[in-house]
Amino acid sequence: MSALSNFVWGIADVLRGPYKPNQYGSVILPFTILRRLECVMEPHRKVMTAVVQEAADGGYGAMWIANQLRRRTRRDESAGLSFWNTSAYTLEKALEDPDNLAANLIDYVNGFSADIDVFKNFGFEAQIKELDEHNRLGLVTREFAKIDLHPNKADNAAMGDLFENLIYKFAEASNEQAGDFYTPRDAIRLLVDLVFAEALRARGVSRSVYDPTAGTGGMLSVAEEHLLAMNPKANLSLFAQEINKHSYAICKSDLLLKGQDVSNVRLGDTLAEDKFADRGFDFILSNPPFGQDWKASEKQVRREHEAANGRFAPGLPAIGDGAMLFLLHVACKMRDVDEHGRGGRAGIVLNGSPLFNGGAGSGPSDIRGHLLENDLVDTIVALPTDMFYNTGIATYLWILDNTKQPERKGKVQLIDATGFATKMRKSLGNKRVELSEADRAKVLQAYTTMATSDISKVFEALDFAYWSVTVERPLRLNFACTPERIEAVAEHRQLNKIDGLVTSLRTFGTELYCNRADFLRDQVAGHRRELAPGGVDGELSRR
Q: Which of the listed residues 39, 110, 407, 537 has the most CB atoms within 10 Å of its CB?
């Protein structure tokens, strides 16, 4: 854990007593976001105040303010400020009036521009009042006012790591699954490497990146970092949808600080309602929850399954596992191929169920068939076990592409990366290993060269097609008292207890019969004649 994470987590000690460990997150996370926003605003406060006053004098709206702020606060290649605060308070100024600290902080939080609904989703105003009632508000505020979270001191990667550690700790304290909200950075980086294997070199190129299960926005942050490293002149638009309101709040604040349009971050159940139904995307990244049912979304999902052009028209998985629904959603959100041959690429993290569940003719099989028949599956990478916080099971990266390179058309590459893992010094839940930069480089090389090796195999898409054929025929038995069969009876645990059975069977002939009636007529009747009084074995017959 980083020194920054230790410091922030240490503030939680102040909450002991009035708060239980599983409640710490509702205080620590919004305070962390508030301090981050404050540090970003601090150098621009004079400009911000002037622009807000000009808007008030001229009767201009929020859009005018946002545009002016972006223009006047842009420095070098950094994005300009796109949000503002009309309150006179900061954390330090609010602390100067301890008797009215709660009212001051509430005024401060409510002074943010309307697109900052982060604190509403945390119920932060209620948390401020509760902290005040328990005489903890001043202590917590004072500690956060000490932290410098300006991007020059804590860049986006550092903030991502901070949120990762905090969320893991809070989820652990709540007996929740950290993986429901956060994807390990090493897994994200490999997924991003594969999805963005082709560099974007053209100056001023514009691309959209979408995560339908965004969590706290980690995938989008790493994707942006990767793409801008490839091409600092690229214009990127980030889009996100998230069902958990706290994760949504963190994701939204993160993109806000990057200068992104926060209206592109939306709260809601992706399976029940696609908040971006009117558009497709250049790149898609997703880590949906493993093994989660789709009962809550069943009505809407079935409606889209029955619609000819619905997201889920190709098929439905068992209601207890919605992984393949997310797979279908990701596939349909890739932008359509245009006249220049430009389409979409996607990467999704899945467990083994989409690979193996369902026989021919089942919903999962129909979904796999749809993806293969439309040549959408580019690569599947098997990851090491013990890579994720909430599970040690086998996981896979699916890379989808609707505009494959000529050498990859009609083919599917399978890469075995299960042997690429570096043991962590300290486990985080079920996460015991990580993929190093060298490990990721090996996987990426196997992908880009497309060479057959111990870890890489390339198949024709039709190699995965199969039929399930049921062959029915009449029951065919044969009957014979051969030495081998009699010996089997003698060794049987139950039959060998029947007195005289083996001895009796040895008197039967060894002729093979395929008809039970014929066997009984010839062999049993003949046997009875031999055992009649005066016959070969009169004593056995009398038994």
A: 39
Query: How far is 10 from 300, CA to CA, in rounded Å?
Result: 44
Residues 240, 238: Cα–Cα separation, whole Å: 7
Place of tokens 């790149």: 283
Check: CB of residue 354 under 8 Å from CB of residue 348: no
Question: In 420-467, at which residue ranges do the beta strands (DSSP E only) sit?
Answer: 422-428, 431-434, 456-460
Q: How far is CA 444 from CA 188, 189, 315, 412, 447, in A?
A: 13, 11, 32, 15, 5
Q: Is 236 exposed, middle or buried (0-12, 13-18, 19+ CB in 10 A)?
A: buried
Q: Calculate the alpha carbon distances from 484 to 17, 491, 505, 514 in Å.
A: 78, 11, 12, 18
In the structure encoding, which two tokens stand for residue 236, read together? 């990127």
How many C-beta atoms lie closer than 10 Å to residue 370's C-beta? 15
Helix extents (H) in 24-99? 25-41, 45-58, 62-73, 91-95
Q: Residue for token digits 């962590």?
A: 424
DSSP letter at 145 equals H
* H or E segment and range at residue 397: strand 395-401
- The confidence score (pLDDT) of residue 534 equals 46
For residues 325 and 298, what is the distance between their CA atoms, to the nearest angstrom? 11
Q: Tell me the per-residue pLDDT of 109-134, one tens digit each, with 9 for 90 and over.
A: 999 988 888 898 889 999 999 999 99
Angle at 81 between CA 76 and CA 84, to 5 degrees: 160
Short-list 194, 382, 358, CA closest to 283: 194
3-state secondary structure of 468: coil
Q: How far apart are CA 349 and CA 409, in angstroms?
A: 22
* C-alpha to C-alpha distance for 463 and 457, rounded to whole angstroms: 12
Residue 343 has pLDDT above 90, yes or no: yes
- Structure tokens, 294: 């789709």
Show contacts of 154-161: CB within 8 Å, 24+ apart.
Answer: 154/4, 154/36, 156/221, 156/225, 156/254, 156/257, 156/258, 157/221, 157/225, 158/2, 158/4, 159/36, 159/254, 160/185, 160/216, 160/218, 160/221, 160/222, 160/254, 161/2, 161/4, 161/5, 161/185
Q: Give the distance from CA 513 to its chain's centroid.
A: 61
CA distance 369 to 359: 12
Matching residue, tokens 């974007």: 200
pLDDT at 75: 65
